[in-house]
Amino acid sequence: MHPHLDLTSRIIAASFRVHNDLGPGHLEHVYQNALALVLRGEGLHVQVESVIDIHFEGSRVGICEADLIVEDLVVVETKVTESILPGHQFRLKAYLRSSPHETGLVVNFGPVRVEVRRVTITGKRRNSG
Question: pTM of the full predicted structure?
Fold first, then answer.
């Protein structure tokens, strides 16, 4: 079973709505902002371009920026490419390893249709603060 299946299903449906309304050909940030707008319109809490600290051996060694974090549960990376590449999924998995989140989506607003890949890291414990 996939964690947060109801929430990820809502995000995927919203992604199709955005692509159906805007059509292909826009830059990534246009789809990212439109998706955030739709999700907020559905009453969901959405963080845009949220910074995630990367730690190594107890020290902060860098940051990454998640395109969207929905309900503080699901990290969403938006893309506008021909197709989702393994590197897109590897990067999202790195974001998940560096954050308290266990579930993410790569959403590609490609030239023809929306393509989605779900990435999950199981067994993670969320930090309590």
Answer: 0.89
